[in-house]
Amino acid sequence: MELEGRWQDLDKLLARDGNLVGPGFEPGPELREFLQTDCRVLCIGAGGLGCEILKDLALSGFVNVDVIDMDTIDVSNLNRQFLFRMSDVGKPKAVVAAERVNARVAGARVTPHYCRIEDLPPSFYSEFTIIILGLDSLEARRWMNSMACSLLEYEDDGSPDMSTIKPLVDGGTEGFKGHARVIIPGVTPCFECTLWLFPPQTKFPLCTLAETPRSAAHCIEYAHLILWSQQRAGEEFDADCEEHMKWVFERATERARQYGIPGVTYQLTQGVVKNIIPAIASTNAIISAACVLEALKAVTMCSSGLNNYLMYTGSQGIYTHTVAYEKDESCPVCSAGVLLQAPADATLQQVIDLMLAHPTLGRLMAHPSVSHGATPLYMRGVLEDGTRANLGRPMAELLRGEGVEAAALLTVNDKKLSAPLRVRLRRRRRRRRRAAELDGRAGCRGAHACMCMRAPRFV
Amino acid sequence: MSSPGDDSRSKRYDRQIRIWGAEGQSRLEAARVLLLNCGPTGSETLKNLVLGGIAAFTVVDAARVSARDLGNNFFVAPESLGEPRAKVVTALLKEMNECVAGSYVETPPEALVEADPGFVDRFDLVVATQMTEPHLLHLESLCRSKGVKLLAVRSYGLAGYMRASMPEHTVIESKPDTQVDDLRLTRPWPALREFAASFNIEALDDGAHKHVPYVVLIQQALESWRRERGGAPPSTAAERAEFKRRLAGMRRVGPEGVPMEEENVDEALKAAFHAWTQPSIPPEVRRVLEDERASPAAADAHTPGDDFWLLAAALRAFVANEGGGCLPLEGSIPDMHATTDLYLRLQRVYRAEAEAHAAAVEAHAARMLAAAGRPGGGVAAGAARHFCRNARNLRVVRYRTLAEEVAPESARGEALAEALGEEGTAANASLYVLLRAADRFHSTHGSFPGVLEGEVEADMAALKGLAQQVVAEVGASGAAAADDYACEMCRLGAAELHVVAAVMGGMAAQEAIKLITRQFVPFGGTLIYNAITSTTSVLDL
Ligand SMILES: [Zn+2]
């Protein structure tokens, strides 16, 4: 039995009409009923953002919430992950977080999944009305993004089929700063459309570390990247192992002493080695609440929604900025299909090579499998023997029935992808394309070639 | 050595100590905070501060846990229905962090302030949530008279309001996100000139050549440029382009005429602007230096532990004398391609000059104290150096009183009219006016507009009238609050939505942390959060 008046604040928003509401808003008690019954929300992450998101969802009328997190609780989480206590250290975050929210908020049904996002099938993800991301890794964001986008289907006229849209709301913080964004696949830009928003992490050149260290961080990275593999060869470095971290710290201290460089501390060693992002409760609270508010708007239309990116900065006064980023019409993940041009006489192998050389497709795949509709053309794994012969055959022959100029829709999969990509192949009678100048990564320049050639994994 | 207790503390707070350092953390761990009203806005604010590890808090609230609390506040539990809200919230907040002391008073904040004005004395900061204008005015005058900082926070439907009140807040470590390096190449001092001149760049072998720090490359190029051009640095676009060509010309060419990869030359080209960009004093710092408190009279008012204005006065004297119009050198240099030895030597050249500047500033401060007849009360050890290292980051934020903001004779009507008229701020300025109108509505009706079903339309007409009154009273002639927002205000009927409260509680905690740690820059003015458009505006009224 729901207590009379419990949801009086929320009900004003959901049951009363207004002038600044979303398209098709239909106020009434059905909206809260929907939140409490059919609506299912997935929260990715039960960390700094996740704890807040779960609380905000439960107190915004959402009932059926699932949460995925593969991590266990650490002491350093306690300054912001308010659902956890000292006695919880070592336990799975998702399980404890779900337990706490269910215990505190009557009616809440948070279901934990103590696993990796990759462990769950597409059929699991397709069950949710909306997905909220509280992550700190770009790779996990890209994986979830491609999963949500793969559930999107397009109509024949190239417009997205609205019933297949799986909205994503994403939050992120660093110190006093953060962002919240809404991704409606096929309508607003996805992660892949705006990948440039995440600048690549800067790495120190190896020759600086080896030959001319100038800062405490250089000494630490020398111990971590070079000395470790020399002196403890065969042993995998584990940043969560205190003995390993202390070893790096001691070697870094020794090197700094030799060179007369000040400033190596254990705290800095951890920060450099683990690439620790500073985090505080208040910023997580702001960003998570902004995300849940947008989720509430997206599923009920109770107020006009964020279009489509909010940036928050609290270090110098309080400053927010909203930007409507633009979709990349040729995005390999959310568009109706990336256009790939190939010569009319190209073989399947040549088409695969073109994919790998393509500036956006190439970075998403390493060993692609290709099919056309339900027909496998070339498949990795058990079907490889049966399809390998196709590699040398011309596409024209493999795609019988489609004219030379027609764009054939290929489905491409790869171990690196969470879900298949759509590639629209257009074959043209043209001179052979130049070999693509493909060097997307800004690696070391010539000056470092020596060191980097020897240890390519650090580039 | 540190005790095990310190160790677990430093682990627990590791992710925030990386932001505000041990110094900021110890200030936080000494802070006592008073919270007035513990609905979701207040509870969420305090939650973020308790997690951060403040010393103690006290909650003042008269309500009992109701069904409504169970729908919008995480710090009440179903089994506590009917119990004093202050007690329940205090217990659930304390449970999160055993290092924090918490207590509560079960009484209406307005009544407590009236009955025991000395109560606020025990706190460093008062966070007043969900209080209407008349009560805030009273509380503000009390806090001002007691020298306690006040932060007023409010969540109202899809709007949020926040305002701080105290005479002034000074900051040494404002920690701006980005800052141009201060290399002083336009005004080299003898030791830097000597260091740069000690390189015979032409004679170096290729390996040594590509490890000459770019500061030396630019400095040498600039010296020879000056010799040729009668002392002036490159100034026109053509001259600058020519100067860059000279820098590019320093790159070695390999045996087959191929230019060599030399990162120090690449860096020099990127940093070429240092050859003609004079060190400048940021406008915020100029305001500090020109402030009337930054005068030798600051020595009279100097109290140990608060050196800001005395050091500002000393800094001003430095700029006018030794500094030749410039701030002291910070003394740090960015990483650059160089051998370890050359880099560390260059670093020492900069650091020694910075030390000399800091000593000069300290001497000015000592002179001022002596002149004021207080020769013994010097500044704290290292304070001058810390101040000089942050010379470009100094900030002072002054707050008008809320009383000045609302009184017709001192209200900034023009600023409000402008905010209401401008596209970027119109909606949020409307929310500001409507919030004040809603408080007037509350004063006469005893409830907020739109609270009662069936009265929404009638309330809206009344609210619009009151909004017009607010606008006219402060002299914002010709302006008006947007009708759509008046409609939204009545639709939401003073609802305290959890998500809006969580956003406001987060922002309020950030502000409290900035005020307590004396790092970063708190906002001045009135902040309006608009949850409909996901925007904020800071109005200077
Ligand atoms: Zn996309």
From TrEMBL, chain A:
Report the superkingdom from the record: Eukaryota
Which keywords are on file for this protein?
ATP-binding, Ligase, Nucleotide-binding, Ubl conjugation pathway
Record-annotated E2 binding domain positions: 340-428
Catalysed reactions listed for this entry: ATP + [NEDD8 protein] + [E1 NEDD8-activating enzyme]-L-cysteine = AMP + diphosphate + [E1 NEDD8-activating enzyme]-S-[NEDD8 protein]-yl-L-cysteine
Question: Does the keyword Lipid metabolism belong to this entry?
Answer: no
Q: In which pathway does it act?
A: Protein modification; protein neddylation
Identification of the protein by name: NEDD8-activating enzyme E1 catalytic subunit
Q: Which GO biological process categories is it annotated with?
A: protein neddylation
User: Under the GO molecular function aspect, what terms does this record hold?
Assistant: ATP binding; NEDD8 activating enzyme activity
What GO cellular-component annotations does this UniProt entry give? cytoplasm; nucleus
Instruction: Say which family it is in.
Output: Belongs to the ubiquitin-activating E1 family. UBA3 subfamily.
What SUPFAM superfamilies does the record point to? Activating enzymes of the ubiquitin-like proteins (SSF69572)
Q: Does the keyword Nucleotide-binding apply?
A: yes
Automatic annotation (TrEMBL), chain B:
Pfam families named in the record: ThiF
GO terms classed as biological process: protein neddylation
**InterPro entries assigned:** APP-BP1 (IPR030667), ThiF/MoeB/HesA (IPR045886), ThiF_NAD_FAD-bd (IPR000594), Ubiquitin-activating_enz (IPR035985)
Which keywords appear in this protein's UniProt record, sorted alphabetically?
Ubl conjugation pathway
Q: Which residues form the THIF-type NAD/FAD binding fold domain?
A: 13-534
Any idea which GO molecular function terms this record carries? Answer: NEDD8 activating enzyme activity
Pathway field: Protein modification; protein neddylation
Asked if the Swiss-Prot or TrEMBL record annotates the protein with the keyword DNA-binding, the reply is no
Among the entry's GO cellular component annotations, what is one? Answer: cytoplasm
Coiled-coil-forming residues are none
- Quote the function comment for this protein: Regulatory subunit of the dimeric E1 enzyme. E1 activates RUB1/NEDD8 by first adenylating its C-terminal glycine residue with ATP, thereafter linking this residue to the side chain of the catalytic cysteine, yielding a RUB1-ECR1 thioester and free AMP. E1 finally transfers RUB1 to the catalytic cysteine of RCE1.
Family label: Belongs to the ubiquitin-activating E1 family. ULA1 subfamily.
According to UniProt, the name of this protein is: NEDD8-activating enzyme E1 regulatory subunit
> Source species, please?
Raphidocelis subcapitata
